[in-house]
Amino acid sequence: MRFTPTRAAGLAQLDAFNAGGAAHYGQRRNFDLGAKDHSNVSQLSPWIRHRLITEEQVLTRIAKTHDLTQMTSFVQEVFWRGYFKGALQHRPSIWDHYLAGVDRAHDAVGTLYADAICGRTGIACFDHWRDELVTTGYLHNHARMWFASIWIFTLRLPWELGADFFLTHLLDADPASNTLSWRWVGGLHTKGKTYLASAENIARFTDGRFNPVGQLALTAEPLVEPFEHPLVPLATPPRMPLDDALLVITKEDCTPRTFMTGDPRGLLGIVHPDTGMSADFSRGAVEQASADIVATHDWAGQIAEAANRAGTAQVVTAWAPVGPVASALATAQSTLRKEGITLSQGQRRFDGLTWPHATAGFFKLKKKIPQILRDLDLAKPPAN
Ligand SMILES: Cc1cc2nc3c(=O)[nH]c(=O)nc-3n(C[C@H](O)[C@H](O)[C@H](O)COP(=O)(O)OP(=O)(O)OC[C@H]3O[C@@H](n4cnc5c(N)ncnc54)[C@H](O)[C@@H]3O)c2cc1C
After folding, report:
1. What is the pLDDT of residues 295-326, one digit of tens each?
2. Which pLDDT score is estimated for 108?
3. 269: which of 91, 137, 217, 286 fits an S-S bond (Cβ 3.0–4.6 Å)?
């Protein structure tokens, strides 16, 4: 595996990017030059997604060697993750509808779906990206956009199945970024605005490696949903000291001690019992963060047992945004409550500053980035 699920490996990748591709990111980031050379982008997403390293740490290190005001496209990309998390947090029904859509679509799949997920469509670039995804767990952002567009508008397959395929294989598999990006390509996120992959654009930004002329749809009729997803107000999380508590670590945040204060009485990692490259990365990340003390089944039972062992009825974890971990924690929470155990989630400052601005399009958050950087004390030019 090219990506190792440790904080040290994430920091090493960050240093390599900082010393190399970062300087030309704005000009070169849209080129997908193939799995052997993605050095024009950071490839940090597997670590950031699991918060082995955080957005704030990435920006802090980059700011030491670069003037962030000259790195606007990179800074904005880093904020896109927070934007998507905040957007899904505000409209959680999107996640439930996506899950129902996957189930519905699975009942009606045919050979074209099998060809797509096995890389046998005959569209060379698409089949290549499928292979790269399945063998490395990573795809360049532009390749993800092209792949999703071809999936939806050329192959005319249900977007939910494509999103599900990505979630299974991406090491950075993220319910918010993935679901909302697929919806964005299909015209459901920014209503009526679709992303159409063209042969010309693919040829240009793959440096001529592919040119699927005559193979792609030439129009992209937006997908439609006959309802609005309601906007739900964000909860205000309390401050979360760790003293006297059991600290639970999930794949949503593998370094909670970088923002929670105090000494926990015990530590427990929890993961889903899934297998595959994406799940293996998550499990590795949680295992190294929780000293290998990991529960895979019956989260409520295992948390209660660990809390009893630690002699506490307080359980603390980092905030799990909308997705499978949040759902499983909500289920565990009601069982734990009956046993007199409190499970609380603490939120990072970065999320608290970012998510409230994700009620509409990215532009609203983009306008706030300079202020958020000042709030995080990141707006200074590099000291040299
Ligand atoms: C259809 C589709 C599905 C996607 N699914 C996921 C997913 O499951 N998980 C995921 O983390 N990203 C997803 N993305 C977003 C984006 O493609 C990846 O975050 C990015 O390509 C990661 O590579 P990188 O670290 O080299 O990015 P860089 O270009 O180096 O960007 C730096 C960091 O900024 C953030 N970032 C950059 N672009 C985006 C973006 N468009 N949206 C959100 N954050 C971004 C990431 O944390 C990334 O590590 C998806 C995009 C599309 C179009």
Report:
1. 888 999 999 999 999 999 999 999 999 999 99
2. 78
3. 286
- Residue that finishes a domain, picked among 177, 205, 233: 205
Domain count, the chain: 3
Residue 340: the pLDDT is 96
302 CA → ligand 1 middle, Å: 33
Is the residue at 254 inside a domain? Answer: yes
87 lines ligand 1 (CB under 6 A): no
Does 32 sit in the ligand 1 pocket, CB within 6 Å? no
| Residue 216 counted as domain residue | no
Q: How confident is the model at residue 381 (pLDDT cuts 50, 70, 90)?
A: low
Token representation of residue 95: 């996640």
Q: How far is CA 55 from the centre of its chain?
A: 12
User: What distance in angstroms lies between residue 44's CA and the mean position of ligand 1's atoms?
Assistant: 9
Does ligand 1 have an atom closer than 6 angstroms to the CB of 49? yes
Q: Is any atom of ligand 1 closer than 6 Å to the C-beta of 282?
A: no
Element (H, E) at 61: helix 55-65
Q: Please identify, by atom number, the ligand 1 atom nearest to the C-alpha of residue 38.
A: 26
Mutate to test the pocket of ligand 1, among 13, 77, 136 (most ligand atoms within 8 A of CB): 77
User: Which residues form the domain of 374?
Assistant: 1-91+350-384
Is the CB of 281 inside a 6 Å radius of any atom of ligand 1? no
Where residue 245 falls (left for φ over 0; alpha for ψ -120 to 50; beta otherwise) is beta
Instruction: Write the CA distances from 295 to 73, 283, 330, 335, 347, integer angstroms.
Output: 40, 10, 16, 16, 23
Kindly report, residue by residue over 185-242, the tens digit of the pLDDT: 999 999 999 999 999 999 999 999 999 999 999 999 999 998 899 999 998 877 778 8
The residue among 188, 205, 222 that closes a domain is 205
- Phi and psi, residue 108, nearest 5°: -120, 20
Sign of CA dihedral 249, 64, 59, 166: negative
